[in-house]
Amino acid sequence: MKELKYIIITTALVLFASCMGKDYAEPNLDPEASPYGNNEITTDSLLTIKQLKNIALYKQVVANSANKGAVNTYAEIDKGYKIKGVVTGNDIQGNLYQEVSLQDSTGAILVCVAASGIYGYLPVGQEVLIDCKGLIIGGYGAQAELGGLYINSTTGVKSVGRMDRYTWQKHFKLIGSADASKAEALKTDFDLNSATSESYLEENAGKLMTIKRVVFRDANGKNVYAPNDGSADLVANCVNRQIKQYNSTTTISSNEIVVRTSTYADFANNVLPGDTINITGIFTRYRDTWQILMRTADDISKAQLAYFSEPFDTGMGDFTIENVKALPSGLNHVWAWASSAYGMKASAYVSGTSYETSSRLKSPAINLSSAKAATLHFMQVARYFSNAATELKVQVSTDGTTWKDLTISGYPDGASWDFLATTADLSAYCGKKTVYIGFLYNSTSSTAATWEIKNVTVE
Fold it and tell me: What are the φ/ψ torsions at residue 215 (nearest 5 degrees)?
């Protein structure tokens, strides 16, 4: 009887399958079709992230969010704009809470979703196409965000917030497979000299960047990133840690840059590293303050210190002065240490007279025998010159006698006393055991510039 029963069941199954016929829906095996998101989204009306953020209304509401009490801090996107970008940060270790950072070659924006585990289908390096129509764009402290409408239950105030995960699933499409190198290619070095520039804040907020050669102010071998025991001030369940440059005793102002860590981050109780480090993360803004959000504990790396450094903060250090031309009568010196603020100063203008001269400020020997890449960095300001490229030369030598002019990133415009961060490529001298840097000042009886140099490093 059992055998007969099994035969009947098997026959029924065969008949049932045959009844499904040609109308049976085959499984979708399209490699481009993802089980996440909306595969029907197309690339029509595609904008760059910068173009979307620069639409007048959207730019205004984001800017308004920097002002306490502002009312117009969000707008609904009512046109079929699309944006495409690469995920550079997600919630994998809990420090970016219910949000991802999306970036393209023009800018970045935070995408806020009321869901956890987003990193599972939006890993770093995943390219995403977003249909923005119906979503909310706005700002929090002038940080641009894309999400849903948030209504404060106490005050009734409306702002940009997290969209629910069902809405989100309708508005994005995954493009290809995740490739972490795509995110790495978008990463840039943070320019500390531009930290307080409003244009720099606006253009770079939300981007993946690295700030190099800094030290945690509170690193003492015991303090952790984000304790929840009262030993550090909490702001919205986060701790803001200050940093300072490795060759400076001055802590970077907490009104300019902080490393912000949630007490819920997986690495919240990791001890702050005491080394000189590079910090990578999503550089968000809150008004005029940069808030660095590390994605994982691996966003900290030990920094390679400079092959050479002389800030000129207490004197001329081991630099020497070579007067290529003998000093004329009436001129006692060309180069002299001015102060910690101005570094080394060169001038051949005395009591209303310009003197013809040539004098070089020469570094001690720098060993680049182990260097694979090297860059000269220094700060400079200059005024009263006729042609900076010929009167104010930056040079290199391997014997201290024969000099070659370096191509530098640019000269001051001569219109102000603002220091300019300047660089020159020294890659051609990597592997050399002895390298000298020279700052050659030239003047005539009609033109005698003032040139100030400080913070000279080779890295």
Answer: -135, 140
68-72, 226-230, 421-425: lowest mean pLDDT where?
68-72
Which residue, 294, 297, 437, is CA-closest to 368? 437
Which residues neighbour 55 within 8 Å (Cβ) at sequence distance 6 or greater?
A: none
- The pLDDT of residue 69: 82
pTM (2 d.p.): 0.68
Amino acid at 244: K
H or E element at residue 450? strand 450-458
Q: Pick from 320, 303, 309, 335: which is nearest to 455 by CA?
A: 309
Query: Mean pLDDT, the chain, as a whole number?
Result: 92
Name the residue with tokens 């060169």: 346
H helix runs in 121-211, sequence order: 165-171, 180-186, 198-204
- Lowest model confidence (mean pLDDT) among 24-28, 173-177, 278-282, 327-331: 24-28
C-beta neighbour count of 341 within 10 angstroms = 10
Q: Which residue has the tokens 């250090």?
A: 317
Distance CA 204, CA 216 (A): 23
Which H or E element spans position 172? strand 172-175
What are the b/e assignments for 261-299, b being 16+ CB within 10 Å?
bbbebebbeeebbeebbbbbbbbbbbeebbbbbbbbeeb
The structure tokens listed for 405 are 């002019």
